[in-house]
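User: Show me a protein chain along with its predicted structure.
Assistant: Here is one chain, sequence first, then structure tokens.
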Amino acid sequence: MPHDDKITAAVLVIGDEVLSGRTKDRNIGYIADYLTAIGVDLKEVRIVPDDEPEIIRAVNALRQRYTYLFTTGGIGPTHDDITADSVAKAFDVGIDHNPEAVRILLEHFKAIGREANEMRMRMARIPDGAELIDNPVSKAPGFHIGNVFVLAGVPKIMQAMLDGIAPQLRRGAIMLSRTIRVDAAEGDIARPLADIQSRHHGVVIGSYPFEEDGRFGSNIVLRSRDETSLNAAATEVDALAVTLTGTDLPPLWS
């Protein structure tokens, strides 16, 4: 796929069980890592309940703001799986049993000896005009409409779906990063770190504190799409680390 300057995305997690804490989300971090690796910037994550108006509002807001929107959850066979209907209403299109999805599910249920009952076949209901997303794990497809990709909530299935759609995604330049450990508390490095940031506008610098053996330190993460700019900023942060530790250390980049 062609590379563009900046491709953005949002993730919309749908499900009462996530908000209640009953289900611990394992998809957000995976999607973030996946998108970063292919040059797509994840800019926003929202979690909404199984509530149609909430889903519709979130889908319409996020799909207009970013290049892509990925949703997870709510496309199973139960009464509270309302993502497909909500997305159809967000796009103002109808929804019905998709013939190809019906075929896939009927063949699958026959092969595993399960009844293709009404509730199971709900998973074949797809918004008009949407394209199916293959599900090699449990066969019930996701779908893609506009710039919205509707994926399963089960991590193994979601991951397989993401692999399937990745080749069709537009990609930006890969975000490069360096991590430098500074054995000093954030309060001690805040001012010099701000000065370094002011000199390197093309580099995003973040400070992430940690505690180890009763002592505080910070991992400084630098991110940029320009390797020269990134290395210049990293050299200054490394010099700061040496100054604060009083030790002539080799670069701590990782």
